[in-house]
Amino acid sequence: MAGNPNASPRDIIRVENLVKKFQNLTVLDSISVSFREHEVVSIIGPSGGGKSTFLRCLNLMEQPTSGSIFVDNVNICDKKININKHREKMGMVFQQFNLFNNMNVLKNLTAAPVKLKKMTEEEANERANALLKRVGLPDKIHSYPSELSGGQKQRIAIVRALMMDPEVMLFDEPTSALDPEMIGEVLDVMKELAHVGMTMIVVTHEMRFAREVSTRTLFLSDGHIEEDKPSHELFDHPESPRLISFLQKVL
Questions:
Q1: CA–CA dist 155, 73 (Å, integer)
Q2: Element of type H or E holding 140
């Protein structure tokens, strides 16, 4: 709001009256919410509540039934918009790592920036090396996905998204396909990104991450945002009966 000295400089993503239906089933029901620069927002809620669908609508991987999604004040639901240019602003990390098995790590990381961002191969290789060091995997640059653990694959998938220098990172349950001992190494990378100010929207079952790392947490249930608060407040003082019930089951 104007006049608030602590307000973030701008909204990166603004969602207005978002509806998503699959035939007669309404999965998202008139959602309006904003995500500000440098925020880390976790989205929690029961399975089937619409969390992943909502995240995938943000970069139009799912086409909304109605409503508007503004990225840097441009309505990306407008059919005249070049959605691929706006997708470059949003890095996406999935549950299943989606690496190309026939390419080594370096090729997985450099193919898109060389082709789409017109980066030179030298620049892309340099950036890949720097980012792999950052996530603790510099020695895996010539490995193939089949030679990596799940946690390593997911860290590579995060690096692949960062290669495009996105304004915001979208994470769709990034640890749900991992063995318990590998979850920590992926969350550590996400914490480091949060620490350096990356804007992140994270659909997660990791309540500790939501509570301790996120600026805000949204509770999404039955296609509605039931609560949207600073994370500690949401976990310490839940108000909606659905959220109270949910937290009793997962904490």
A1: 31
A2: none
- 21 backbone dihedrals φ, ψ, rounded to 5°: -120, 140
Could you give the 3-state DSSP secondary structure of residue 116?
A: helix
Q: Which two tokens stand for residue 246?
A: 């949910």
Report pLDDT digits (tens) over 118-144: 899 999 999 999 999 999 999 999 999
Token pair recorded at residue 80: 């005249």
Full-model pTM: 0.92
Q: Give phi and psi for 61, each to the nearest 5.
A: -65, -30
**How far, in Å, CA of 31 to CA of 16, rounded?**
6
**Angle of helix 150-162 relative to helix 105-116, nearest 10 degrees?**
20
| pLDDT digit string, tens, across residues 64-88 | 999 999 999 999 999 899 888 888 8
Cβ 16 vs Cβ 76: under 8 Å: no
Q: How many CB atoms lie within 10 A of CB 76?
A: 23
3-state helix, strand, coil in the chain (%, to 5): 40, 25, 35
